[in-house]
Design brief:
62% helix
C-alpha cells in the first residue's frame, strides 16, 4: 500500500522555507549596504542610485560597476573576512575593517 502524502504540510514547509530565504536575502542586502558604506546615504538617494542602475541600458557602464563590485569583494576577502564583506554567520564587516564573524561568502 502506498504512503499517503500530506500535501498541506509539504506546502506549509515550502512556504516557511521561502519566507526564511527571503528574510535572509533582505538581511544580506542590508549588510551589503552597510559594508559598502552606502548606509551613510539617505534612503531617497540610495533608492535613486539603485533605480538608475536598474534602468541603465549602457552595457559598458554596467560592466564597470560589475568589475568594481568584484574588486570590492576580493579586497574584503584579502582582509581576512572571507570572499565577501558578509560572512555565513550573517555578520557584516565594518567598512575598512575585518569581518566580524568567520569566513565564507554569501551574496
Amino acid at each position: 500500500m502506498r504512503k499517503v502524502r500530506d500535501y498541506d504540510a509539504e506546502l506549509k514547509a515550502l512556504g516557511d522555507k521561502a519566507r526564511s530565504l527571503k528574510a535572509k536575502r533582505v538581511e544580506q542586502l542590508g549588510q551589503l549596504v552597510a559594508a559598502t558604506g552606502a548606509d551613510a546615504l539617505d534612503a531617497e538617494t540610495l533608492a535613486g542610485v539603485l533605480l538608475d542602475a536598474i534602468g541603465s541600458e549602457d552595457t559598458a557602464t554596467k560592466e564597470a560597476w560589475r568589475a568594481k563590485g568584484a574588486a570590492f569583494f576580493q579586497r574584503r576577502g584579502k582582509k581576512g573576512g572571507g570572499a565577501a564583506a558578509i560572512d555565513s554567520s550573517g555578520d557584516a564587516a565594518e567598512p575598512g575593517g575585518d569581518a566580524a564573524g568567520g569566513s565564507g561568502a554569501t551574496a
